[in-house]
Amino acid sequence: MLRMTELSGVLVVALALSPAVQAQDPPSPIWTVVKQVAADPTTYAPAAVSFTAERLDWASSQLFFEHGYVEQNPQFTISGRPNDLPLHYSAGNHVIAMNALADLRSSVLNNLTSRVVEQVLLTRYPHRKKSIRTLGWIERISFGAALAYTQSSRHFEQWRHNTQVARELGYR
After folding, report:
1. Of 20-24, 159-163, 167-171, which gets the smallest average pLDDT?
2. pLDDT higher than threshold 80 for residue 6
3. pLDDT at residue 40 in the model
4. How confident is the model at residue 27, as a pLDDT?
5. Is residue 104 part of a domain?
6. Is residue 137 part of a domain?
7. Does residue 89 lie in a domain region?
8. Could you write out the DSSP letters of every residue in 107-163?
9. Which of 172, 171, 157 lies closest to 69 in space, CA to CA?
10. DSSP 101
């Protein structure tokens, strides 16, 4: 009588040799691109960085609003004009989430385009796979880094400034 491990080994070999497993078509290029974009960290990183930066800025500004300060960023004021009353905390969080989703959309579109171009080039120049994939990674990383930097740098600076000033004023 076969033991369980031997039986499972026989089943794996039988399945691997069966015509149903061998006859599987390779995944479609569209499905390949979608999986690559979904698994690529450069798809999500810019949105995560900008979300974090805006949340830190927004959270560190709350102490100042409690002491009568106004918001300078028109995106976070009630009137939509600079130097006005700030939005309610949850409304500001909603704005931040929508900004992060816009960054995610931009990143997804860029990565989809990059992967489609990469697939076309790989089909046309199969002997240049390594170069084409390397250039694709360089493009996606560069786009992601530029997007993350432009969307988050001023918020990280404002957060640091807010933290320093709050400490100096004894708000914390």
Report:
1. 20-24
2. no
3. 96
4. 78
5. yes
6. yes
7. yes
8. HHHHHHHHHHHHHHHHHH-GGGHHHHHHHHHHHHHHHHHHHHHHHHHHHHHHHHHHH
9. 171
10. H
